[in-house]
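Per reviewer request, we include the raw input and output of the structure prediction for the construct analysed in the revised manuscript.
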Amino acid sequence: MGKIAFVFPGQGSQAVGMGKDLAEKYPEVMDYFKKADQKLDASLSRLIFEGPKEELTQTINTQPALLTTSLAILEYFRKSGITADYAAGHSLGEYTALAAAGALSFEDAVYLVRKRGEFMERAVPNGEGTMAAVLGMDRDKLSAITEEVTESGSTVALANLNCPGQIVISGTRQGVELAGSQAKESGAKRVLPLEVSGPFHSPLMKPAAEQLNSILNEITMEDAKLPVVVNVTAEPMTDAQTIKAKLIEQLYSPVLWEDSVRKMIALGVDTFIEIGPGKVLSGLIRKIDKSVKTYAVSDEESAHAVMDALKEEQR
């Protein structure tokens, strides 16, 4: 058996009721939800467990909700004794990975992502920016299209390079529409508009990055205890100051998820364990490389299934 990576989901994986069964059964899991409520001076746990969905899906709530739930699930999974050689997270999930790797305390991480959500929502007036998934197109071709559209006066950029044939673009509404139309004309299979509250991971997020920088300067970040493969460079990092700089860049730079997964595989990872709600990252990883093993831990049943499967492999 090769190396193991823990990976943590980003926005889009949230669901009302996530983590509730574990929290009701195990006090150490519930502690995460209680600490989040205390730190944010809000009833985040009630929103996570009971909804409403519309409120949970607001960026300002989704980000701390997903981070809290993923780390609470990880707390339960730690009982298995299974440890990771690397960690990574998709966009918001990078903060979860950093907390899991000991670079951030839970309280600082949940506060940071709440502020990050606020800054992202405020950076561009509602309705002026958007995102779309482009399916079945080469990244270099799509990059050339976004550059051309941006030069013509409508900002748009590659935002998430998720897996072969799945790239998300982000920018002004006009920029995304123009780039989407040109992509279809140039051979893209489909262009799917996304229901998002802003043009995340585009140059339009630079005002949010400046605000986040001031908050990050108030936070104590430690060197990570295990390497975290960061979104901006797809390279493993442990140095606290370098990681801080990359978190700022991450807001307006593309998430290099495909590259990050390929990097971990090149470093000897053959087992990816997604920890948190949903199975989005597991699906993307299988599209990147079918030869690696992927598991998803979101509740007690799935945690035990993963524990049993890994024990069987080690025999």
